[in-house]
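From the methods appendix. Each design record in this collection lists the tokenized structure first, followed by the designed amino acid sequence. Records were kept in a plain field format so they could be parsed without special tools. The example shown here is representative of the layout used throughout.

RECORD:
FOLD TOKENS (285 positions):
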């Protein structure tokens, strides 16, 4: 990591992707792998990309208030709803989803579909059609502030999802209103479903664009929970809307999936499944 500029309480660095995964991150990926393989589902690359972001967000909130559906609970919206298996695995690990329910993922008659559904307990908003989560999160933040509640709203979007114009309308309004209870986290894996994000429509320079809309923006290693958590705390204390650009690798954790867009839709079976299990079981992976 190269040193960059000081911004708030966090040193902004040129982000890279870390070389190893924590035991908890590998365990989460094994849950995701098993759920997707057993249900013949897709989007494993997108799920592996966002694991540490979700983990850092849920480590930053009061799980007890979420479980109790308290009015002043923090809200989490996974706008890139096709990474549903990653969200459900995270909810399971925090005791917010039972094992019996998690094991029904993407099965017939299950509420746990391949895209996030608010019919599942402790899911705040259904997502799947990209570009909807951030506008809803802005509305939630406005509503919570009007009620003088201290709750925060975390919304996780994909970088390809930022091609949707509705997101930039929401960003413009959030910055104008200085919604300090809103934290936008961007899973910046630089891959959309059809190819590299920048070859479709470049988002760069992303941090400067967000800052132009009055966001307090940070760039971090998106597979380092500590960096993400530190950025979340700094963003929450900034007095305006916060954004954390998380540099990630699509398919992180399985070497043959990384930056390979075939794994946006492909299901790991047989040798691919066994190889992924083996790699995720290695202490140095």
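DESIGN:
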């Amino acid at each position: 990591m190269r040193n960059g500029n000081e911004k708030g309480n966090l040193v902004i660095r040129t982000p890279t992707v870390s070389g190893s995964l924590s035991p908890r991150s590998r365990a989460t990926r094994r849950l995701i792998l098993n759920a997707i393989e057993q249900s013949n589902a897709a989007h494993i690359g997108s799920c592996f990309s966002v694991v540490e972001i979700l983990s850092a967000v849920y480590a930053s909130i009061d799980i007890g208030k979420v479980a109790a559906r308290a009015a002043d609970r923090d809200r989490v919206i996974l706008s890139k709803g096709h990474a549903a298996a990653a969200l459900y695995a995270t909810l399971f690990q925090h005791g917010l989803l039972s094992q019996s329910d998690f094991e029904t993922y993407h099965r017939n008659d299950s509420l746990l579909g391949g895209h996030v559904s608010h019919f599942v307990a402790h899911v705040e908003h259904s997502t799947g059609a990209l570009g909807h989560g951030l506008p809803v999160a802005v509305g939630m933040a406005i509503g919570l502030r009007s009620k003088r509640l201290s709750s925060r709203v975390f919304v996780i979007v994909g970088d390809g999802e930022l091609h949707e114009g509705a997101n930039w309308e929401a960003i413009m309004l959030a910055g104008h209103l200085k919604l300090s209870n809103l934290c936008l986290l961007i899973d910046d894996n630089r891959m959309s479903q059809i190819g590299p994000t920048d070859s479709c429509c470049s988002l760069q320079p992303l941090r400067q664009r967000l800052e132009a809309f009055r966001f307090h923006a940070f760039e971090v290693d998106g597979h380092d929970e500590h960096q993400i958590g530190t950025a979340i705390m700094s963003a929450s204390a900034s007095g305006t809307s916060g954004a954390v650009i998380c540099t990630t690798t699509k398919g992180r954790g399985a070497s043959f999936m990384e930056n390979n867009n075939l794994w946006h839709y492909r299901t790991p079976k047989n040798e691919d499944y066994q190889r992924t299990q083996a790699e995720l079981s290695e202490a140095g992976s």
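APPENDIX NOTE: The longest strand covers residues 182-188.
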